[in-house]
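sorry for the late reply, my laptop died twice this morning and i had to redo everyting from scratch. anyway the thing you sent over, i finally got around to it. pasting the sequence first so we're on the same page, its 55 residues, then the predicted structure underneath. double check i copied it right bc i was rushing
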Amino acid sequence: MPQLNPNPWFFIMLASWMTFSLIIQPKLLSFTSTNPPLNKAQTITKTTPWTWPWT
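ok and here's the structure:
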């Protein structure tokens, strides 16, 4: 059963993981967010419960 042989598939997984973690991820993390979150106080909205006609 060839799918039980981890010889080629383990190397492919390891190579793709190393490529992502060493090359692609630092390039993606270097970008700055275009819309950074602001440090402002949250506004609390007052909600009224719905009045159901059968209660």
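The helical segments are 7-29.
thats about all i looked at so far, will dig more tmrw
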